[in-house]
Amino acid sequence: MKYKIASLLFLVFVLHSCKDENGKRLAENEKDIKKKEVIFSNINKGWVFYDTPINTASEATVASWNEFRQFLEELAQKPKKTIGAFQNKATAITKKAILLNNNIPPEFNKPQIRSRIATLITKVSLLDLFIHLDNIPDKKVVLLVGEINVELASLQRQMDKIVEKSKIPLEEGESELMKMMDTARAIPNVKVDPNLPRVE
């Protein structure tokens, strides 16, 4: 009899604790869903990229530099509905950003442009990293979207500077001076072997 009462009390205790755990689990799930909705809402509001060229130099570049045009087109397409869509878009943007190093037009294949592209790739990769975390830092993601816009504008301004500098005419003798300063054309500093016969 004592065993029956003890087992009955134990069974009641187990069932009661299971109900409490289910209630706690449901409350935690509800809280988690609300948190994810807030994160999605914040990212959705902050996901605004400057996807149009800001000056005539970058407009002309979009026509000739296929990778740059595709990168801007990828930025223009805003994902909808889920965090997963934003995660997929961040991955696609990263792939397009990495391709910016390919086929850079010769007039822009300079260290100033390459360094800005490298910085832009870094920011886009960080965005991709942060949005794929389990606990997404939505404020950091929105901040990175703004930083990507700043780097993109910096890249386009540098393109414009290069185009404007190329329009300035060279002064008389400047081209010869540039050729003389070119280290690739310099006479190599080779020591002459004194044992070799010389023509005098």
Write a structural description.
This protein has a domain at 47-166. The chain contains seven helices and no strands. Helix content is 70%, strand content 0%. 16% of the residues are buried. The chain has 200 residues and is mainly α. The radius of gyration is 31 Å and the shape is elongated.
Defining traits:
200 residues, elongated, 7 helices, mainly alpha
Strand and helix map with partners:
Layout: H1 2-46, H2 56-64, H3 66-76, H4 83-98, H5 111-131, H6 138-167, H7 174-181
Helix pairs in contact: 1-6, 2-3, 3-4, 4-5, 5-6
The average pLDDT is: 77
* SS content category: mainly alpha
Q: DSSP strand (E) fraction?
A: under 5%
Got a strand count? Answer: 0
Low-confidence stretches: none
Q: Figure out the total of helices.
A: 7
Shape: elongated
Helix content: over 70%
**Largest beta sheet, briefly?**
none
Order of helices and strands: HHHHHHH
What's the alpha carbon Rg, rounded to whole Å?
A: 31 Å
First-to-last CA distance: 127 Å
Brief write-up:
The protein has 200 residues and is mainly alpha-helical.
